[in-house]
Amino acid sequence: MNRRSVVVGCGSYLPDRIVTNEELAQRVDTSDEWIQQRTGIRERRIAADDQKTSDLAIKAAQTALENASVRGEDVDLIVLATATPDETFPATATRVQAALEMSQGAAFDVQAVCTGFIYALNVADNFIRLGQANTVLVIGAETFSRILDWEDRTTCVLFGDGAGAIVLQGQDENGSEHPRGILSNHLHSDGRHHDCLYVDGGPSSTQTVGHLRMEGPEVFRHAVTNMASVLREALAANNMEPKDIDWLVPHQANKRILDSTARKLKLPAEKVVVSVDRHANTSAASIPLALSEAVEDGRIQQNNIVAMEAMGGGFTWGASLIRW
Ligand code: UT7
Q: Given 114, 186, 211, 254, which residue is catalytic?
């Protein structure tokens, strides 16, 4: 009998501190008008000095478990997507594991930058389908504020901190014509584009943490093309068309990218879940943050077709389709 990974709960966490565009305009040569016009971002959350990626992840995970009525000790796998781990090692996921008093199973991190959540979801889904795990926490958590060059106006205005989590559980299809759960995942990467988006530090290169560097317009062009094409690939794999999508929950990098992708697929804007205006780009956390909001406020309902897509450094890109 086929196993499906069904989402049984979502949760998210945002640091308290709100940083507005006006506040940034006092630090670098920018303006609220420029940031809003070019990106749709109004504000972002920034973690407190003593808050680490794991602290945000733990809070999001606890809410997701509560909403799923699942105890931490019953989770048998944590897959945490982050490009800003607490430490070079061990995996930030093991910090979450300890905090949730989960003594069984396994916990590890996945690194695909802004596509991290889709990669983590795919890994978790494979574990469930193969029967290697049954109750899985998939987390996207980031403190990008720690790797920004706060003197570079072309990047420091774009990112924020946050975390989102979902709980997946394996369920048998039971012969249902339209089984709920993850329908398919589609991952891609192309390492030739390293220099368009990377961090200029790391343990084996500079022995420093480094700062994010990005050729924005080049990334923008690839983002629109790649996200539209991987979404088409996901729809084709399920004999679906754009009109079958109830909700598109894209990686939140730039409102103009969201609009262009939706236009390419002829998807009405009302079907796109947008949070970039308040969260900015939270990398691997952006999809589960947006997803949690749309579930919490009742937009996403059981049996809805939810499409997710992302693109990030590497380049990496991917999409997942879920019957909620
Ligand atoms: O999540 C991973 C994927 N990341 C992304 O998807 C990001 C993709 N890229 C983007 O979102 C956009 O390319 C940006 C928002 C980064 C930039 O927008 P753009 O419309 O592509 O602007 P641009 O880089 O072409 O810059 C236009 C002008 C330049 O000035 P000149 O050369 O025309 O005089 C920039 O120097 O805007 C200037 N500029 C700024 N001005 C005010 C760049 N950053 C700023 C700023 N404030 N913060």
A: 114
* Protein residue with its CA nearest to atom 47 in ligand 1: 30
281 is catalytic: yes
**CA-nearest residue, atom 3 of ligand 1:** 312
Q: In sequence order, what are the residues at sequence separation of 6 or more whose Cβ sits closer than 8 angstroms to the Cβ of residue 318?
A: 112, 115, 118, 119, 122, 185, 186, 187, 188, 230, 309, 310
The CA dihedral of 211, 213, 219, 223, to the nearest 10 degrees, is: 0
CA of 158 to the centre of ligand 1 (A): 9
Whole-model pTM: value is 0.98
What domains appear along the chain, each with residue ranges and CATH number? 3-172 (3.40.47.10), 181-323 (3.40.47.10)
DSSP secondary structure, 67-128, as one string: HHT--GGG--EEEEE-SS-SSSSS-HHHHHHHHTT--SSEEEEE--GGGHHHHHHHHHHHHH
User: What is the tens place of the pLDDT at every residue in 87-97?
Assistant: 999 999 999 99
